[in-house]
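Quick one, tokens below. Sequence please?
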């Protein structure tokens, strides 16, 4: 069973949208954070960014209490990058990794938590329903009818901080390793192996 730390040191990060972002929290105090826009190079940039944050705060990997990671919804490749990194770090450091979905990380009073998606769509939770992919107009109309603000955000500046905060509240719970939250099929289907072509002689 995970032992409670007097003041947990939690590293949170996310690459589920066109960004690479991370934050290090000691309890509820932000020690360091980074936010970089761009969907390319996330796999190469994530680990150096985490190293930079720890160095800036004067902390080491061994001091971490837990890891928080954004599990989506969002970009398939980006989600896989972050979740794989979190699971690998948790295994190597023998600390918990907590998956935080994008709706929880974007939740605000009076606002519909929504994540932009391609083709004028959004991922959103409406009226207590399960989160799903829907047309932006549908989510906007539902929010207006409920007297809520509809402002989907792909890359909130405080996203990693919120992920770390929530992970710090949940790391003592018995949770499964973080897993990607996919709400739609991948745009690119895997290639199918074709049978060899027979040539008549």
């Amino acid at each position: 069973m995970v032992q409670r730390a007097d003041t947990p040191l939690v590293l949170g990060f996310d690459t589920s949208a066109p960004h690479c972002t991370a934050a290090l929290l000691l309890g509820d105090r932000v020690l360091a954070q980074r936010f970089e826009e761009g969907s390319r190079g996330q796999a190469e940039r994530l680990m150096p960014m985490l190293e930079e944050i720890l160095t800036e705060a004067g902390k080491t990997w061994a001091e971490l209490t837990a890891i928080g990671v954004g599990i989506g919804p969002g970009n398939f490749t980006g989600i896989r990058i972050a979740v794989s990194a979190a699971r690998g770090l948790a295994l190597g450091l023998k600390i918990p990794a907590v998956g935080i979905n994008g709706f929880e990380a974007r939740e605000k009073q009076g606002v519909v938590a929504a994540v932009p998606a391609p083709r004028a769509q959004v991922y959103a939770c409406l009226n207590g329903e399960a989160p799903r992919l829907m047309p932006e107009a549908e989510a906007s109309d539902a929010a207006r009818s409920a007297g809520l603000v509809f402002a989907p955000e792909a890359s909130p500046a405080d996203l990693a901080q919120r992920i770390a905060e929530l992970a710090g509240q949940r790391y003592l719970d018995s949770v499964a390793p973080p897993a990607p939250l996919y709400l739609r099929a991948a745009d690119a289907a895997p290639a199918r192996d074709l049978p060899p072509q027979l040539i008549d002689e």
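Residues 99 and 178 are 4 Å apart (CA to CA). The radius of gyration is 19 Å.
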